[in-house]
Amino acid sequence: MKPRTKRALAVVLALVALGVASALVLQAFQSNLVFFFSPTQVMANEAPRERSFRVGGLVEEGSIERDTQGLTVRFKVTDTAHAIPVTYTGLLPDLFKEGKGVVAQGKLGSDGVFRADQVLAKHDENYMPPEAAEALKNAANHKEQSTATLAMPPAGTRP
Fold first, then answer.
1. What CATH superfamily classification does 36-145 receive?
2. Between 141 and 120, residue with greater pLDDT
3. Could you report the per-residue pLDDT of 101-138, keeping only the tens digit for each?
4. What CA–CA distance (Å, rounded) separates 121 from 123?
């Protein structure tokens, strides 16, 4: 083989190896990618049914139910507009309380219950994950707009 042919073959093999390595890295990245959704987005069927994702908001007041026989806990995550029932088996963070911020990671079941495999609680009085804070803000704005729309008189009438 001529040196020129050997060099061309080496370049082609290097490009193929680089392409395979890139494909493997992208595949690993894609399988570990987890998106965040608010309870309102989950109720609007914007969340994936077959993949793991995160849902966040506040733990609804009065919604925590602990299993007396094990470590299973049931609670609701709300963004003040909608609430999603969540079930989790395991130890909860010390800061997990009603009315406090929480992010749960898991999958949504066909029955509409979010089965979490990880629960994260906010770590101090001032912190909330940016996605959860934005979801709460959007839900509050949506709720205000709905209330304002209901309070408006019909078009063409005088108040």
1. Nucleic acid-binding proteins (2.40.50.140)
2. 120
3. 899 999 998 888 999 999 988 665 556 667 777 777 88
4. 6
37 HSE (CA, 13 A, CB side): 24
Residue count (the chain):
159
Shortest CA distance to 55 belongs to which of 30, 71, 79? 79
Q: What whole-number distance in Å separates Cα of residue 77 and Cα of residue 120?
A: 12
Nearest-angstrom CA–CA distance, 60 and 40: 14
The two beta strands, 83-89 and 114-121, are: parallel
Taking alpha carbons only, the member of 81, 95, 99 closest to residue 137 is: 81
Q: What is the DSSP letter of 90?
A: S
Whole-angstrom Cα distance, residue 48 to residue 107?
Answer: 8
pTM greater than 0.85 (yes/no):
no
**For residue 111, what are its two tokens?**
């029955």
State how far the Cα of 57 lies from the Cα of 14, in Å rounded to an integer: 48
